[in-house]
Amino acid sequence: MSRTRSNPLPKQLSLSVHLNDEATFDNFFIREGQVNAQVVATLKYQLQPMGEQFVFLWGATGVGVTHLLQASCLKAQQEGACSQYLPLTELVGYDPEQLLEDLERLDLVCLDGLQAVQGLPEWERALFRFFNVMRDSGRRLVMAANCGPRELSVNLPDLQSRLNWGLVYQVQPLRDDDKCRALQMRARARGLELSDEVAQFIMHRVSRDLHELFECLHRLDDASLAEQRRLTIPFVKQTLGL
Question: What are 12-26's pLDDT values in tens digits?
Answer without folding.
Answer: 445 667 888 889 999
